[in-house]
Write a structure and sequence with these properties.
This protein has 14 helices and 2 strands. The protein is 78% helix and 1% strand. It is globular, with a radius of gyration of 21 Å. Helix 7 crosses helix 9, helix 8 packs antiparallel against helix 14 and helix 10 packs antiparallel against helix 11. The relative contact order is 0.15. The two termini are 16 Å apart. By secondary structure, it is mainly α.
Length: 408
């Protein structure tokens, strides 16, 4: 890797670990939050909901900012917003005001997350992008995995307000690193169009338009699958099969280990063999696991299915972003990534709602079968209809890559 990569790693990878560590710290503190602000537990968890709403609304404006001014501004703005909102959360005594701070925090945090994702993808050549994005997602996953343990250790001595202050301090470090970051210089064509181009997809080369649409659907499937698994697997294991929450926790640990184990190999395959070699198997394997899971009725077979589901999750991390980078115009990367991600978040929202409705009239296990056609269909579309995006592996007649990246 070049000096540019290692310089970027300090200002992108380390902050990613810290941001997800801080976010994960708050998870075990939700019961304490209910006591601190004198609300019910059911109301306290809506902090997570309002954060998600803020994150969802951040995609489109952040994508426009990236296309106009690059990846650094949203990283700086997002980190600054995080610091201010976390300090506000620690200071307020009112739960409604707390929700307000967390809505704005979600908006700012996603600005930073989206900006650092673009910055990570732009700091390396296309043939190294798969590994760069896989590493980024893996480091973020480690931070999210370690955060709850740290939060659980700190919650009792310092309380939820203390956690907000610790996270504000972490965000301040992230802000300093964002300001110091020297983004890669990307030659973006000048445009006189408005900042928000809602017909940006029309500027995708006709050769890749169908591929972009398939990635649109595939991203929807990835986020839907993740949230359906997070909500329905505990119901299936505990309510339907009668096992304890400890068993559920162990099964999720198996899933997490498999996810982390495949991330770096998937990035290597993506860079050497092509994006389809990662994206298509991810969707197909995910579909097969949703088909098989209801047939697994004890911890060992469920764990085996979850190993493959973890492989699918690890392969999906960063692959859709990398694939999209390869095929969209340079000057519209931000907005086209944002459109894809926004649609994917819709899947994350409606997936649990739909699965819950199915479970209420049938059973949690049946909800997995309901989504099998979507996941399998996305995988088959990637295999048979999507065009390879990696410049070195494009078919004859494909448009050449036009990107030019250099260190500032």
């Amino acid at each position: 890797m070049s000096r540019t990569f290692w310089s970027g790693a300090l200002h992108i990878y380390v902050p990613s670990l810290l941001m997800m560590l801080g976010q994960g710290m708050l998870i075990p503190a939700l019961p304490n939050l209910a006591e601190t602000y004198a609300v019910s537990g059911a109301l306290a968890v809506q902090v997570v909901t309002i954060q998600q709403v803020g994150k969802f609304l951040a995609f489109i404006p952040t994508g426009a900012i990236v296309d106009r001014w690059g990846a650094k501004p949203p990283m700086v703005i997002g980190a600054l917003v995080s610091v201010v909102c976390l300090l506000g959360a620690a200071a307020t005594q009112n739960f409604v005001l707390l929700l307000g701070t967390q809505f704005v925090w979600g908006f700012g945090q996603n600005m930073w997350m989206f900006g650092r994702e673009i910055a990570a993808a732009e700091m390396v050549p296309a043939e190294q992008r798969g590994r760069a994005m896989s590493t980024l997602m893996g480091i973020s996953g480690v931070g999210m995995a370690l955060g709850p343990a740290l939060g659980g250790f700190l919650t009792e001595p310092i309380g939820v307000r203390g956690l907000f202050l610790v996270f504000a301090g972490i965000s301040a470090v992230i802000l300093v690193l964002a300001v110091m970051h020297r983004a890669a210089r990307v030659e973006r064509p000048k445009s006189n169009r408005s900042m928000f181009n809602f017909t940006a997809f029309r500027e995708i080369h006709p050769y890749f338009r169908l591929t972009y649409f398939i990635l649109f659907i595939s991203t929807f499937g990835v986020l839907l699958r993740t949230q359906v698994t997070n909500t329905m697997l505990p119901l299936y294991v505990e309510s339907q099969l009668g096992y304890s929450p400890a068993v559920t926790g162990l099964l999720f640990t198996v899933h997490a280990i498999a996810t982390f184990a495949i991330i770096l190999p998937a990035g290597y395959v993506s860079d050497k063999r092509g994006r389809k070699w990662v994206a298509a198997p991810s969707a197909l394997i995910a579909g097969i696991t949703f088909l098989l899971l209801p047939f697994a009725d004890s911890p060992v077979p469920i764990g085996l299915v979850l190993v493959f589901m973890g492989f699918a999750s690890g392969m999906a991390m960063g692959s859709m972003t990398t694939y999209t980078f390869d095929i969209v115009p340079i000057h519209l990367r931000g907005q086209l990534q944002a459109l894809r991600r926004s649609f994917g978040e819709v899947g994350a929202i409606i997936g649990p709602l739909s699965a819950g409705a199915v479970a209420s009239v049938s059973s949690p296990s049946v909800s997995f079968w309901v989504f099998f056609p979507l996941l399998a269909g996305a995988g088959l579309a990637l295999v048979f209809f999507a065009r390879e995006g990696l410049p070195a592996r494009r078919a004859q007649g494909a448009p050449p890559s036009t990107e030019s990246v250099a260190a500032r």
